[in-house]
Amino acid sequence: MATRTANLYARIEPEVKQQAEEILTSLGIPVSNAINMFYRQIILQRGLPFEVKLPVEKPLSVGGMSEEQLSKELEKGHADILNGRAKPAKEVFDLIRKENGI
Predict the structure, then answer these.
(1) What residue ranges do the domains of the chain occupy?
(2) 10, 19, 36, 92: which has the fewest C-beta neighbours closer than 10 Å?
(3) Reduced to 3 states, what is the DSSP secondary structure of residue 22?
């Protein structure tokens, strides 16, 4: 006796779909199997099988910033200097070394 199946229709961003399918193909997992595994994990975990939360804000690397983001960060730094919220680099590095026992 064949197992019954149901159809699932979902709208996915084309780039996300392509990237995910390339990874699944390299793993040898058909998309339908991956979706089935995801649903089974939802059932087993009684919720999403991973944490859903906003990431901790991490400092951006200059290379990963847009021109607008870089300008905003430079303006914030300049405002900090003008308002006395900056310390000399030597003082900061000395503090880091002290905290790390260096």
Answers:
(1) 14-45, 62-99
(2) 10
(3) helix
